[in-house]
UniProtKB/TrEMBL annotation:
SH2 domain segment(s): 1092-1196
Protein name: Spt6p
Biased composition (Acidic residues): 17-36, 48-58, 81-92
Domain S1 motif: 970-1036
Organism of origin: Rhizophagus irregularis (strain DAOM 197198w)
Coiled-coil annotated spans: none
GO biological process, one term: nucleosome organization
GO cellular component: transcription elongation factor complex
Any matching Pfam family: SH2_2
Annotated region described as Disordered, given as residue ranges: 1-92
Biased composition (Basic residues): 64-77
Amino acid sequence: MDSDSVQIEQEVYGDEREPEEEDNQYSSSEAEESTDSEAAKEIAEGFIVDENEEEEVVEEVKEKRKKKKKKNKKRRHESSDDLSEDELDLIEENTGVKIARSEQKFKRLKRGVRKPSKDVKNIFDEDEEEEVLEENEEDFVVYDDGEDFIEGERHAPTLFDEVFHDLEDKYSFAFEKIEEPPDFNIESLEKVFSPEAYLTRKDKEIKLTDLPERFQLRPDIVVNRKLTKEEINQATDTITKSLADYHGILVSSQLSRSVKNALTLFGQEFVEVPYIWTYKRDLIANYDEDPVTTILSRTDLWHIFDLEYDFRKFVEMRDKLNSEIYKNHSQDSYVSKVFSEAKEIDELYDLSVYIKFQEKKKTISVQQVSPTEELRRKGMVSKNLKYLEYIHKGLLKIVDKFGVQIPSFVRSLNSETKLHQPVNESSTPREVALQLYPESKAPDELLKQSMELLAYEMSVDPMFRKFVRNNYMQNGLLITSGPLEAISDNNEIWSYCFWKIPIQKVFNIGGDFARILHYKNQNLINISFQLRNEEKFLETLKNNIVSDIPRRFDLETAPASSNHVEWNKYRVDAAFKAYNDILRPIIESWLIAKFKANAEQSIMEQCMLNLERKIDVKPFRTPEMRRNAIPRVFALSFGAGGIENDTCCVYINENGKKAQEWSWPMLKDLNSREGNEFLDALEEINPHVVAVRCYDFKTKFLLQTVKNFVRYHNERLKNQSDKATVIVTDDKVAMEYTASEIAKKEFPKSSELSRYCTSLARMIQNPLMEYLRLGDKILAIKFHPLQSFLPEEKFKEALDRAFVNVVNEVGVDINDILRDEFNEPRQRALHYICGFGPRKSIYLKQVIFGENYKPYYEPFIDSRATLKETYLEPKIFQNCAGFLRIRSDPLEPLDDSRIHPDLYDLARKYSRNTPDMDDARSNQKYFVMQLIKRENRNPFGDRRRDFEIPTDDQVFEMVTKETKDSLYPGLIVSVVVKSITTGALRVRLKNSGFECNIGWNYIDKKVNNNIEEGDTLDALVKSINKDDFTIVLSCKPRDLEKGHHISFYDKRFDEFIDRETKQNYQPPIKVKKVSQYVPKPKPKPPRTITHPCFERVSAQEAEEKLSTQPNGFYIIRPKTDNPDKLSITWKICDNVYRHFDIIELGLDPGLEVGRRLFVENEQTEYEALEELLVTYIEETNDFIDKMINHQRFRPTERQLDEFLESCLRNNPKYTAYGFYMDNSNPGCFIYGYKFRPGTRMSKMRGMFRPYGLRVEDLRFSNLDELINGMKQKIYERYSRKR
């Protein structure tokens, strides 16, 4: 294989798979193979239908077709192409797939019969159902439900089904039928046109719009709107400050210039981060330093991309609000002034709240119906209802008497001199209230309500909100309490207790605020906010709200002074209430949301960088290997077994293909038969590297064995440069890959252990491709300790950005993508190319293949110019051109380099001469010339970092799951006794599960006889030998006295600790010191919940109780082997019961059932137990009842066989079929069929599901669809065999 340059496509192919009829015991019998041709002919002629069906079928067909045409026309008239917002919410909730939202809603998504197409591009088009039917009026088969079906077509999973495989588990009522793709080469199409292509209008817009897909996936904005120069300048100020606060640095002119350039590229040229980092880095460089450096990192560019999106949302909201103001509030100078000064989206929101309140005041003051009655009629609630009632009562008249001009008051707050001077009434507040409401018997209550209304008016004033918010940002403190529960001294919570940290510094603690918020939500600590200058702030409010004390020149003015004091009291109370009771909670919630978003941004960046470090790695290479060579790799493992179990060895060759596989029992003796085979394999193939890894810590046993074999092999080599290297490799990817559907599809005949070894070997050859292979399975891998605090969509976006960074660094050969449509990782790599995404990459392949799509058709792109002129829009081409390789003798040599076509003229100028970097520096083209220089010398050279063999510390961490911070000499650890022998205790570390021994000489003799298996002990780590993975532990009291428990003390937070608060802290309950010997806890009582179907019975007792109940009844009960968990016993039919566990997440104290529920081995999530029961059991019961009551159902296999024999004797020209319950697999049924009397019944297993019925990979929403689909499947199978 040519490897002169790095190829992203280095790959391992799956087992060569021959066509099979069935993979299980329910295949068609061998006895029938001799009659395949005749059987196929009989199937083609038809299946058995009931006599009444046979008589009425012809009359029904025409009427059915007419009704169907009318129905289709009506549906097309009433529906659009997109799912409704509610339906999309349901899809996202059930599938975990984030779906782009379209602007226009529709009722349902159609699915018609499969229709032939002449063009692959039509896969997304909306073919008219009646047109197909009209063209095939003379060629149709009538099925049991009477619907038309084009002869020769297949019922197979659609692309939509592939993506939303469990969409209808809970919400089948929301969909009718799903439109299916064209019927040709469907297996290839499912590879070429990835299941990630969604069939919505929004997706069609994305693939056709000349704009990078990632730009178009940002909701709530006009994605193709160019920012104006004024908006760029405004965004620069806002984003530069945000970026400086995030990094804890000062704003500088260079930072501002770089941010502005980046915003111009994002907001006006619509180019993505890889393009800027590769071709426009000079615009974000610092030319005042030597050597030239970048002011912004690539991570900063992604951050600016997010902030630019936030600014666009601000612009969208500003434009809408401006339209509203122009229409209804153009005469309000205060509104216009506030609007013109708004710089952030929070200020716009405050203004919109203010405008709505002003409008509400006008309408409520004159309407007859009270706000309470109005809301009751509308079925609505309002947290501000009492203020609306105050307005309706006319209390604004009293509020006016307070004399407070809120805009003037706020201006006074922001000024050094007092500008606000309320006007005092000559009467007292009580007298004024009685004058306005002479019939009132509670004037003081009216005054209090009026004061509250004034406070609310102040709280909705946008300038007052801004004043309070700015004070918190400048002078606010975040305060955390001590633990609210008794916790041990070595609990991590202590690191986040007793904080008093300035608001500005909270932005610099990274993702730690997410942990603080987690502890708050767990009610373990409290967080609060306060102003450092709280007293001064309140004094400022008071001084600016009151009227000045009038001078008294004589006794006649004395009453006025008394009135003045009373009016000022109400004013001050209103100001304090507006701040303390109304605004303060709002501001604190706003701060928490802001800190949470900041923490998530930090965690996202760390996840992105950590994945990037793992995939930005070259293949393993020895010094003697060629520059871009791929190593030969052996990978060995015995999985979760031990040295007594079989050892699997897989060989992956230089082409990335699985070439050979061995399995040896007890591979440990050089002179054994297995040992000789392994040595022969080493000698014959001479691998560059031998990878070793097991599922758990037993790696250490296999590692030592393999090292002995490889050492012996290396000593016998004539050329010592050919020595093999033994390494332990990370298996996080292999563990996720092994049992995945991806692996089963790629290697259907291989064992899980074989697939595990294959993944280990490929990780050494090409980590990038192996991570890409996982798809969404990658979300299960841990990249950061705090990643669980990220919403899944943000976590996925962070990982996607890592792929975008690295895939564009490596490049993608477009012709390899077109040639190898079955290589999923390589196809997925195209999604991450700059400007592309799943939809655009699929659309590009559609356009290239066009009408010439054939299974072995291999189009060839000869130049980037061809892509530009024929296949790609200008903006997409600009983004992706430099990252798409044209190899194999391109028309333009530079097409096989990272040099962008825009730079070709410059590159040709320096093709023979080395660029003058000093000149490039003076022209501020340093990075561009550096790129040209590098690419002219080595086009698409591999710039990833070298593969690093793990150090002893890293190997020890991988095998034991213990880090240098979690396990070290002198540390006291908790261990669990696993077994007791005469020589030692076998224990496992409670933190990681790693097993080791404690000799009896390291155990106190006083407790020797009291230790039992399962006991938890404290042990001191005396020493660690990382070479042979041994840990010496001691449980002697004198050793424990010398040790210490793990400390979560973090020096970073020293400056935040409030020493006085910490010193005065009194724990709720004194924590008892844990003794060395911990007796076994008493067993907990069985779980109890409040539900009419719950009973504290065993599985057997549940079956006995249900035996007298109708089919479909169920009992919720404690799990037999773990009474703290819940299980369900479900009566499927007579003497058939299904038992399954309920998996609970979020079972917080005080809750009877977890917040998130799953059925055992199922992926669908339920929010409540009742939802699970109704959706999973009761809806499934409907399908079970319909099958049991169907005329072709028989209770047992023998009875069905007799029924089929009877049918065939009466109608020998037809194929007979029926169903019976699979009693050995509760919840399943058997579809049985025969071609002729006397033959063995063929069987296929199906499952009852909440959305309908499933047989193999086919799903059916009702019994009629199942019957028709199975007829077609059997017909196609035997047609192929014929």
